[in-house]
Amino acid sequence: MTATHTGCLNSVDRAIHDLLSTATSPLIDCWEIGVELPERFLTASGLVEVLRARSTDRSTTAALWTETARRAQVQPQPWVLLAVAGMLPRLRASAYRVREQAGCERDDIESMVMLGFVETLRSCDPAMRNLSQHLGRSAEQRARYSVTTFELPWGDIPEPGPAGIRLLPLCGPAGHPDMVLARLAGDGVVTALQADIIAATRLDGLPLSFVADKLGLSLHECGLHRTRGEGAIAHALRSEN
Predict the structure, then answer these.
(1) Neighbours of 106 (CB within 10 A)
(2) Is the pLDDT of residue 182 over 90?
(3) 189: helix, strand or coil
(4) Total domains in the fold of the chain
(5) What pLDDT score was predicted for residue 241?
(6) How far apart are CA 26 and CA 44, in angstroms?
(7) Domain that holds residue 62
(8) Among 76-80, 86-90, 172-176, which stretch is predicted with the lowest mean pLDDT?
(9) Beta strands 28-29 and 41-42: pairing type?
(10) Does a structural domain hold residue 171?
């Protein structure tokens, strides 16, 4: 008999299967959130199917992820599990990439991917742009950070609260935008605060007003930090060439 792998994501997948087989009542009224689908009401399985389908248009996907994240923060069960279900194929792909590059144990990497996803889901702004991309990217970054020794001297950056700006220090594979920004910050081209603002707004897609509020800055001050940092980066990259 072939042994069945009992890793983190497989265990979650079984829990999802159990949930979808029993939760048959409508969960979301698409009309209420401005989504036009053939079926007005989505059940748990219908929601997961739409979230996973590559054929779903971006505005529909964005609206459904916003609603799913909002509900997950108010009522963790079953909404956290439904959010995981909607992202599961990407979480598996992320875990595979990190495992192949780092050569770590499968269960360890899958657990870190799951942790990163749930942490971000519980603390994100549900209305942020590119929410699904942010959730998937943060999950993979969490796993990468768990297997890297790369660290930055962040200095006096204010500690983020429960809805922090970035869950992780800048990290990523060689050539990744995070790593380029991290190198420039480490070289003193930009300050740690400028790097954090640029990463949060340009890479993670958070609104500048949201970042300013979380850092205790005015919108003008936050924008000025970003503009100066981006100018310094542009000058440094031109000088390298």
Answers:
(1) 15
(2) no
(3) coil
(4) 2
(5) 59
(6) 7
(7) 8-146
(8) 172-176
(9) antiparallel
(10) no
